[in-house]
Amino acid sequence: MAPDLRARPIPEAAGHPHRGAATTRMLRSARPHWPWVLLAVVTAALALTPLIPLQWQAWGDGADGVRRLGGMSGLREIAVDTLALGVGAMAVGMVLGTALALASYSMRPRLRRKLEFLPVLPMLVPGVAHVVGFVFLFSPENGYANTLLRATPFFDGGSGPINVYTFEWIIVYTGTHLAAFVYLFVYTGLRNLGSDYALAARVNGAGPLRTLFTITLPLLRPTLVYSSVVVFLLSLGQFTGPLLLGRREGLEVVTTKMYTLSAEYPVDYALASALGTPLLLLAVLLVIFQTRALGNQNRFVGQGNSSLDNRQLTRAGSAVSACLVLTYTTIAAFLPLLAIAFVGLSPYWSGKLSFGDMTLQHFSAVLNDQQILLAVTTTLTVSLIGVVIVIPLGMLISLAVYNRDRMWRPVPAVLDLMANLPLTVPAALLGIGFLFAFSQPGIGLYGSKASLIIAYVTIMLPYSVRYQLATLMSLGRTTLEASQVSGAHPLRTFFQVLLPLARTGIASSAAIIFVLLIHEFGVSLLLRGATTKVLSVVLFDEYAGGTYSQVAVIALLMTAVTAVGVVLAMLFGGRRALERL
């Protein structure tokens, strides 16, 4: 006899009536928010597209890649060099960046207004061009700085004294470059902190050093912890510097070894993916450590910056501080650009400072090279399309996160997590993940402009969200709530109130993201195709081929495009726009 299904109670309703009611309420509450749920799905798809294939290759087939990783030759040296680069560059960057921030903060107001943006300039030079500039300066045989040093009584010989290709100098270069990031974090923290507590300590008899170590630095703890974690992650994920500088001495870190494995045929996808897994785990652990180390941040809130310029700043101290800032900017930004320009104007790179043979033939050759012109077009096309996509997407995510109290609870949490996930993963690892994802049978995106655009949108999403969320927070809720109270539809409020008020911040964010995309190298190198190359990849190919004069011209071309984006950012957002880099 067939069972009477009507007589059987529904398990949830009978055994767990409250659970069934809670599930029903949750589903009903989600219905009005289905567009935001769809946005969360799209954001998660973008963030996980490179990461899932990466881990699938590493742990698939019985964790074959992870098992073979332990027996890989040279693994210990690669791991030690990666950690040494991370720790060493973080130490150099933190000390130098903090010193630069304190120096700018210690200058008199008029001098500070003129010089405070200078330590940011190394960030405005494209990464590949910046490394090449240091090669032209500090190559042991032909570096211009080494040539000048050997002309002094203190050094002699046919090479050196500085060899930029050694591991120690790679650490120094990386830390010097990352000091600009630390400077932004610490200087912004100092300006927001104000000087009231420091003034109180000085009035009560504390000297400058005691005030620094007992008042200023403890109050800056959140900034220092945050910047140290960010710089350590950036150091561990360094790709451009180790790739261009470490190849001559045979030095490899995790990112460059992954690139080598992906460039060899047949590609060992499983081993390359497994090699990047420890970096992903370490990134997660560092983010957790960062959260726990900060604890209650209200303990570190200062009194504001109303009395910033009322401190007793001496003329001598201000002059010394200005000299420190100018020295760093000269070494980290001006000299590399001058070296690049000199090589571009010379018949060939010889290391000799001769002004009699300067020529424009290399500029003419580059501007008439169809492959390079195609790379310029590709760079501008994919970068602009990426900006056009990522800015509206970031605005929608920012709105959801900003109004999290009015949203279905899981949506803003998922959006916040997924939108910031690419920021914790080194660009080279993301590039390997995109390579795996786009080269799968049936997808066919590898080597196309579409693959670059999708990758660019993914890696720029955290920046778009962060910048535009800051814009929303600066606007506040008063005007928007007044519009809604007056009966305006949310869409009308968005288009007629929010966008006009936020247009300056949006335009500034778009210009800065355009600059960052022009700089992008790691992902672009791994996704390049025969006819799809951006300027940074063409520069790398020319550098590998030894055509240094053309390398210099391409580097200047990239810097000029970057300068246009920076000018636009400053026109829309003012000088403070550089802080968003």
What descriptive keywords fit this protein?
581 residues; MetI-like fold; single chain; 2 domains; mainly alpha
Task: Report what the structure shows.
By secondary structure, this protein is an all-alpha fold. It folds into 2 domains: about 55-115 and about 180-305 and about 310-335, Orthogonal Bundle (MetI-like fold); about 360-580, MetI-like fold. It is built from 27 helices and no strands. The chain has helices at about 10-15, 15-30, 35-50, 50-70, 75-105, 110-115, 120-125, 125-140, 145-150, 165-195, 195-205, 210-220, 220-235, 240-245, 255-265, 270-295, 315-345, 360-365, 370-400, 410-420, 425-440, 450-475, 480-485, 490-520, 520-525, 535-545, 550-575. Helix 8 packs parallel to helix 14 (about 240-245) and helix 18 (about 360-365) packs across helix 27 (about 550-575). The longest helix has about 35 residues, at about 370-400. The radius of gyration is 27 Å and the shape is globular. Residues about 1-15 and about 295-310 have low confidence and may be disordered.
Compact overview of the structure:
The protein is mainly alpha-helical and 581 residues long. Helix content is 72%, strand content 0%.
